[in-house]
Structure formats: structure tokens, C-alpha cells
Amino acid sequence: MALQSLDIQRRSATTTPSPDIRQNTQTTKVAKLIDVSKCIGCKACQAACMEWNDIRDEIGTCVGVYDNPPNLSAESWTVMRFSEVELEEGKLEWLIRKDGCMHCADPGCLKACPSPGAIVQYANGIVDFHEENCIGCGYCITGCPFDVPRISQKDNKAYKCTLCSDRVAVGMEPACIKSCPTGALVFGSKEDMIHHAEGRITDLKERGYQNAGLYDPKGVGGTHVMYVLQHADKPGIYSNLPKDPHISPLVSLWKGITKPLMSAGLGLAALVGFFHYVTVGPNEVKEGEIERAEEEDI
Amino acid sequence: MHKRPYLIRRYYPSDRFNHWFVAITFILVALSGLALFHPAFFFLSHLLGGGPWTRILHPFIGVVMFVAFLVLAFRFWGDNFFTGKDRQWIRQMDDVVSNREEKLPPVGRYNAGQKLFFWTMVTSILLLLISGILIWQPYFAPYVPIIVIRVAVLVHALSAFVAITGLIVHIYAAIWVKGSVEAMTRGTVTGAWARQHHLDWYRKMKNGEIRGHDHY
Predict the structure, then answer these.
(1) What is the ipTM of this complex?
(2) Which of A20, A118, B26, B138 is the most buried (most CB within 10 A)?
């Protein structure tokens, strides 16, 4: 049995219950809170992520903005996204959003994954990829409302932020949290993080950010990575953070009702055939037909 | 002494090779595809050597099947256009499934059910190819917009369902109508079979309008 903090709540492509003997003990849900208003874009969290997970992205080139690397990759599980926004005339705001897996309570990647146990959701809320079970089909990318998973070109396995499930399992905070010099990143129980965010939001509102708020989108059941945003009414200005993310209805249809319905349909088609054969019977050449055909034979 | 039945050639060896080539590749893509469709079928991924091998081989086998199917479709294309008699045949579906064939209008080389199967396969296999290429990892999918991928996975699943259901009906029809399997395994049918199931085609064969008349 796994460590209690890593008890499995949900498992990809599995139709039977996951081990839940401890379910009643109420494993604490964890969350990472990213306070965008405190982030200075130093990328210490990116470096810490690389270091703890022992992954090195290829050295790229400058793309003209501070984003470096320019996008998430199989080797870069978190990336600072910089956007320059002028909501009020003459008032430039430099919004820096730490992008990465949001650890949705209703994970689209897990819903889409066809390989049993390649994606798991722990009882503490962390959504983790088990790459040894990954087949490299890319369905997790199709299912993700945040465009997070990446397939490695080296091994064709999907990778993303693990919320340092290995560290959290032994009572440590994720590596990015540990490295943050401004306290923009905090980690704890989801309840505590919401409470912490409330204090920050009150503070921001007092400083003139009337629309400050918490980003914990309900469309995906809430997330275990949350943002404090100065402009929570316009998440799109933070490098296209979706306003109302949810699993696409196309994915829900594909991995929802069609799966049992079409599987049953195929079974039914075969059964109808079988029962047709044993009730109506085969269609055989009739006696008279043989004689008629022989008469007409040359 | 039993007289050997009078036989009519229905398929040339090249037709048979083409058909069974498509059949084998279709079974492989269908089973490996089902493995990725529903967890209940995931065990089928072992057919091609496990999950990653299924992901690797399924699309390649699919493309091979498409090419072979394309040749087959062109071979049989001309015999599969619907006529007024076909519409009447479909209206009398209850006579069809009840083996009351004598009540049906005379049938040419293919009956309306076979034609329906032909066009179902043409449409669904074309959709499977297009949607399959769009979601093909790691070669094409990384360059396709996510919304297109989401539509493609759905189209791929739905058209696969239609194609596999079509195949189940096709296989059952071959078991149900005795004497049909030999057409595709040996190339011939008996004169009586042709007269009962495909009277118009039988008459054309007798009148020498179509090549393929053969005595063994």
C-alpha cells in the first residue's frame, strides 16, 4: 500500500474502484498557491524544478521576450509567462504567471488516457503521470483544458509537473515553493491556501485592485494549483489563462457516453447475428434452384 | 453418383488476395484500436506487443489497410451503384431477414445490403484515415490545433464504430447465406447460389455479357 498521502483516488482507464480502504480518514487535500502580485519573475522556481526532478531542457535562443524557455516542454514542467498589459491608459502592468499543471480535481488528462494507471490522482489531490505505463498516444494533451502535458521526443512519454509528489509524500513542500524568494509561492492544505489567499486579496483590494481574486476554476472541479490574480475578472490577460476552463464537451463525449454505448453496440450486433442464426436459420440454396440452374446449364 | 455442381467464377485470385489483405489488416487495426478505446478492450493491446507497440503500429497498419482498401474499392466501385430495385429491396427488409428471398426483386452482382456495406466502408475508412493522420503521435498531432484534434478523436471513434459494426454484419451475412464464403475463398459460387441470390447477375453471366463463366 502506498504512503497515505499518496493513496490513489482515481486511476486512468480503470473501471473498478481504486484502493480506498483509508478513504474515510480524509486525507488532507493539498494546494499550491501562486500569488501573481508577488512574483518578480526570477525563475528560481524553474531552476529548482529542473534541479529536483533532474531534468535539463535544451538550451534555446532568445525569442525577444523574457519567457525562457518559450513554452512548457517534456523537460520544462514550469515556465514563467510574461505579459505586458495596459488596462488603464499610461499604467503599464507586467504580469508574470508561473505556468504548469493545475492539478484539476476533475482532470481531463486522466479522463482521456487509455492506458490503465498511466495517470493517477492521489487522495491529496495531486495528479501524477506514471510514465512507465504511458504509451505516448497524446490523449492527455487532447483532454487537458490548460495545454500542459508534453510528450518527450526522446522516449515518447508524456511529462508534466508532479507537484513534487515524491517530496509531498514525505512531508516536504514542492521544490519550486522552497526556492521562491518573495513568498509568491506557498504550499499547504487547500483549505489553508484559500484562507491565505483571502488575506492577500483583501490586501490587494485595499491597494486599489478592486477585481483581485482567487483563481480556483469550478469548471474543472477546482484546482490544486491556484492563483491570486490582481485582475481575477480578466484571467485572459495573464498569458491566456482560460476564464472558464472545463473538459471540452468533445472530449467528454468521446470518453464519456460513447465508450460504453459503442462497446455495447458492437456486442449487440454480434448477438443479434447469433440469435438470428439460431432462430431464423441460415439462408441456403433451395432444392428447386439447383435443378433450375442445372436445366439452364449448357 | 453425386454430380459436381456447376460453378460460376465470382472473384479472381487478385480480388481474393486484395480482399483478404484488407480483411487481415482491418482486423489488426480494429482490435488494436479497440484497445485504446475502452479499458475493457485494453488487453487487446497485447496483440501487437503491448501499449506502446500498439500506439506505434496501429497507424502504420491503418495506412497500409487504407491503400489496400482503395484498390479494392476501385475494383468493386462500378457494381455498387444504387438502383430502383435496391430501394425496393431495402423496403422489403423483413423478407430479407426472414429468408423469403423469392419475394424480393431480382438482384445484380450485389444486393442493396452489400452496396450499403460498400459505401459505409468507403466513407468510414476515408474518415478514419483523415482523422487518424491528424491525431498521429509523434509525427502529425504536435502540429495540429487542439480543437481539430478533439474533433478528430471523436470522428475517429465514431467512424471506427460504424466500420466495425459494418464488418460484424458483413461477417455474419457470409455465415448466414450459405455458399458465400466459397466465393471469396475459392473464387466460385454454384449456379444455383447465383440464380437464387443474384438472378440478374446470373442471367448476365449465362448470356455471356460478363466474363468469368467457368466449368471445373
Answers:
(1) 0.92
(2) A118
